[in-house]
Model the fold of this input.
Amino acid sequence: MLFRGFIFQRLLDGLGEWPAQVLIAALFLLTHVDAIQNAGPIGYLAGVNIFVASLMFGLAFVRTKSLAMPIGIHFAANFVQGGVLGFGVSGSGEQGLLTPALTGSDWLTGGAFGLEASIPGLISVVTLTAALYLWRPSTKLLS
Done:
């Protein structure tokens, strides 16, 4: 609600979609800066992932004209990564229902930061962002 609510909607009206998207994505990234700095060498990858995820959340709002989809995607991603799979979420470890079984380089697993700091995480976020960009919802859904 903080990022896609009043501020984003006013920026959309005043500046247009992409300037609003970039400004809010930068703000979203700034709120994660402490965790990114503590991530070490994969912090840059985490930063790119978080920035692109913010664009994805913005597109979810723009496509649906509702806060439900961006809030739902964000909540589901964090809950599944941390609460279910047991990965770190933005650098904070959680005890999940499952224990992560991924091993390997941090760029592959995200290390302690979580999947948000991994190449598979980036591929996932970019794919969903592209799908939202290309998706044109039926007007029946929006009425």
